[in-house]
Design brief:
By secondary structure, the chain is of the alpha+beta class. The protein has five domains: 90 residues, no CATH class; 69 residues, no CATH class; 95 residues; 83 residues; 75 residues, no CATH class. 46% of the residues lie in helices and 15% in strands. It has a three-stranded antiparallel β-sheet, with no helix packed on it. Strands 12-13-14 form a three-stranded antiparallel β-sheet.
Length: 477
Amino acid sequence: MSRDQPLELQCDECGRNMLKAHRTQSGRRFCGTCYQRMFVHCECPRCGVMSRLPKNDKHAVCWQCFKDAPCIRCGRGEYKIGKITPFGPVCNSCSVYFRPPKLPKQVQTESKVYQSLDPFDHPVSKRGTCQQCRRYRSLSKSPEGRQLCLACLRDGLVTCPCCSNLMPAGRGKRCENCYWRDTYLKRLKIDEAGLSSPEFVEIFHRFGVWLIGQIPAKKAALTIHGYFPFFYEIEKRWGKIPSYEQLLVHFTAEGLRRVRLPMRWLSETLQVSINAMEREIASDRRRIAAIMASIPIETTAAKILNSYNLELQSRIAAGRLSIRSARLALRPAASLLASCEKIGNKLPKQNTLDSYLLKTPGQKASIFGFIKFLNRRYATNLVIQVNAQKTILLRRKQLETELIRLLESGKCDDTFEEKWISVSLSFFHDLPWRKVKNLKHFSLSTDADGNFLVSLSGKTYFVPHWNFRSCSSQLEN
């Protein structure tokens, strides 16, 4: 079709071609014939005036009522109509949001590729983040090949009016560090306004001045609001800086770890004396409570675990056991009882214990006290025994599964290579997993076929490439 010929439309009711729609209703176009057939004379349900309305739409109103409806975007009642949309009329102010986007000025290059131009007729490749000022703008390619905004491309580096340091011209009136510093000071004042007593306003202000000197301004601005609830809770509960023991009881050790910088400031200013031993004890108590909660209450397993915990607590009170040792003893006991609950056994049996130790042979020493407790209290006659041969076979099966999983992942990056080498050393050369899972001090070379030669602790180990090229002859040697 030539450009001079008018574009033909189709009636949405009958499909007939037409140069102009006789009526448009709810986004659908109707020709003159379909308009006479689908629109009938009836009273408008809103104003009562006779008008042609679609017979299959009970909620349709006349054209005047349709135009008198509030703006569908801002809800304004009295306004000048800016545009009639399929969804209803919009005011003049909101009409800009319903206009089709304007394309930038384009020119046709010699290669017949259309390229956008900015107001200064510089070629604009795309909109994105400037590689120099980090602003999201229309980008132009610099002679060095970097994507820069117009200001950075034209002016390069300029002096920051605030700190007199050089900054990208696209940053505007201040450099990035000055922006984040000003933002930080504003947010600090907002948080200070949330504290009621002048004493705590001064405490929080001194902490804020200390914080901006310890970490970058951007990180300080992004994290200062997260420290406000800590000081607010202290002011609300005590009205002054309490002792470390009081903080530990109220916030717990895990809660104090989330406010490391405020605690560090309190320690450096000698307002709080941190007791590392009390913190570890509180942490172990929290973990013991989590272990006890892992078993459903009112079950046989929960009653057994509770009895064992009471015995351990009595030994802690007598000074014959540390709280950390009690936690290490409760963890395998809870795991063994949980496995019994899954198969429906009230008490652990010998096969259940053997299966548990086969999967976790390192828990043999930790679970000894619990087995002794079961034999004495419930007469279970359990014997702790670890089948070394079965354990080795299970471990090799797990390593083989891990190698297959690595091959099926399809990745060949550095992380994949490190994982492949560590698992292969344990699988092919029976090296302990704890020794090779995080290799640090080793040298690596490759042979002509791309296989690896790993030098570790004065010995050289052959590790096949994941493509298994020339592996069989190497392994036989």
